[in-house]
Amino acid sequence: MLLSACAPAAAPAGGSGAAAAPAADQTFTLRFAYMVATHPESLHTIVANEFKAELERLTNGNIEVIIHPGGELGNEREYAEMLITGDIAFASMAPQGVIGFTSAIEFLDIPALFTSQDELIEFASTDIARARLDMLEDVGIVGLGITAVGPRMLVTVPDRPINSLDDMVGLRMRTLENPVHIEGMGLMGTLPTPLPWPEVFTSLQTGVIDGIETLFDTFIAQRIYEVAPNFALVPWYHMVYLLAGSQSAINALPERYQAYVWQAAEHATRVGNEFAVYYVENIGMVRVHEVGANVTSPDPQPFFNAMAPMLETHRTTIGEEVLEWLAERRS
Fold first, then answer.
1. Hey, what domains does the chain have and what are their CATH numbers?
2. pTM to 2 decimal places
3. Residue ranges, the chain, pLDDT below 70
4. Contact, 6 vs 134, CB < 8 A?
């Protein structure tokens, strides 16, 4: 089947050698899920809407994509299960959602692996990334693309600004309940403190924690600046989303429509990555200053150096080919 190819396939060209078009009345309804509420600046929303519009355009409306935002159909682990069974056709989700089923893209969750959005986006278009995404098919999931969500920065309470790595020592920093994130925070000298997100604002306010790591839009939307106004531009972790498809649902489509799925995915991830870069540079930075945050710009390299042992500890998970690519790009 077309979907087992190692790279997104182009739509078949016209002419006598082209695949026969699906019958004009052959229609399909496919479901696309993601966790957050619909919002024009949400990367999930942008990718889903762009994918839907492009696939419906390419198929002249013979495929209808129904979008289910805001966790309507469950959580991301449940999305992975539904992709495998074919109960949904597509999802935009964090890599953690599929880690329980395969370790193929677990490496994307390791802090300090990528040091810039440009580096991550460039890697996502390589044959190395494509080979790792193709491994998802072993469990019935199709890796249609990777989108760079943006850098998670370091945010702290009023009396603990971060101007250098030394300022991290002893900080009680909230992390995700994720072993590699806890490990990375510990290597920078902090006291990693996993907490559920609903407890974060109050914990900052009452001194239970000294800081968090977060995205630009979360810092603004959740009004974190009211209790933790120090915003250090240290991109310790570049967050990604996976544009995933159901192998069984895609394989049930006519061959030409399968090619259009890849074409729509390429379009959606490209638009998503362009927006992610634009957001950080032209929206996120502006808004952080507008709310009166104390923005500091420590040299990020000592922070990356502190976390460098993770690249060796998790060498098998990351893969030699990924590490060699990174080394060559940075040389």
1. 28-150+239-282 (3.40.190.170), 153-237+288-330 (3.40.190.170)
2. 0.90
3. 1-25
4. yes
